[in-house]
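Why do we care about 3D structure at all? Because function follows from shape, and shape follows, mostly, from sequence. That is the central idea of this module. The next example makes it concrete: a single protein chain, its amino acid sequence, and then its structure expressed as tokens.
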Amino acid sequence: MTRRLALHPDRLLPADPATRALARELYANVAGMPIVSPHGHTDPAWFAGNANFGNAAQLLLEPDHYVFRMLYSQGVPLDALGVGGSAADPRQAWRLFAERYHLFRGTPSRMWHDWVFAEAFGMKVRLDAETSDLYFDTITEQLGADAFRPRALFERFNIEVIATTESPLDSLEHHEAIRASGWNGKVITAYRPDPVVDPEYADPNGGFRGNIDRLSELTGEDCTTWSGYLAAHRQRRAVFAAMGATSTDHGHPTALTANLSRGECERLFQTVISGTFTEFDAELFRAQMLTEMAAMSIDDGLVMQIHPGALRNHNAGLFQSFGRDVGADIPTRTDYVHALKPLLDCFGNHPGLSIIVFTLDESAYARELAPLAGHYPCLKLGPAWWFHDSPEGMRRFRRATTETAGFYNTVGFNDDTRAFLSIPARHDVARRIDCGFFAELVMEHRIEDWEAAELARDLAYNFVKQAYKL
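And the structure:
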């Protein structure tokens, strides 16, 4: 039986009628505010070339690890979904998704996709086995229209600025092409040095030492020496800043930092580039590089983003077959209080440093991160993120952190996604959840209604612009 697709106007708002009415009023004042997306993984080539997207599966299924990890968990092979460039028939891949769409009940992926289906493509019936071809044909046809080109969608979604994420080894040619095109959309880059900072960086197409050699070629610096290596980072950071970057992005396995002497740094660097390093050496080098990056941020003003706590490529077989980012990154327990102390001992009180810390370990919210962000001027607490960018994750985040860090030591919301069409859906969820939380505080007489209105605007728009210097 075909079922109707309709988005309830009060979705995610509190169940209590009086609280819901206030949340509805707060939400109405922020629902249409511009979207600021300072941390994400959309492809700058989309906006540079402005070519039409291919078909429903290529856009909404293949790049979305939230989707294909769930399907894989239920026995669907990734190569049948077209993941990693595998030669799957797009219509059949979409059918596998449609037949199993019920698996996403209660998940944020269901909310995001329902928004995209209803709001972006105007679908009136729910996705299932019976409507699979209708969806595939309707979406694919619309994707061929000018209104669905990347720049048109950027403008339709009211995106003010979006940051992509590139390696120091990236030529940034797509960002240059965007600038040269004369288009008014603001797409900036962010400096993600992991491939040339992590001695254990996993990449089937090359390794850390090969990346160091490429960095030498790109910059003209001798990156086999400690001084040349640091100079190369400074040079590339300057290039990224010239392309609009306001932030760096560090996806380390842990939050460990270090403060070694110059001689110790030089010896450690020679060890890691020799290839004879231990796990301890690799961890210590990454730790030192976070401190080095903080020092560089004081000099050039780039905001640091640190998001540790993921065991990357947990499924070794999938990594070998499909490469990175296939949905097998798993959260781990993470220490921040001890791990960040060496960096904070050096720079924690410096007025020129700004660090946004994320976590995959919810247990650290109230115990570690909120107290740290509620004390150190350089620290801001990133939003509920990656596995926690969900209604319940966002509610837990607010309840765990607000009393210690307040709202003003947080940075609003970011979508952190490759799924371009879901960006407005994700921001909409965050705005609804926050407005519901503010409404509860007003009804409990903990804040005034005018304060709630100010906070709703700040969290939807102002905080993120301030935190990321946008």
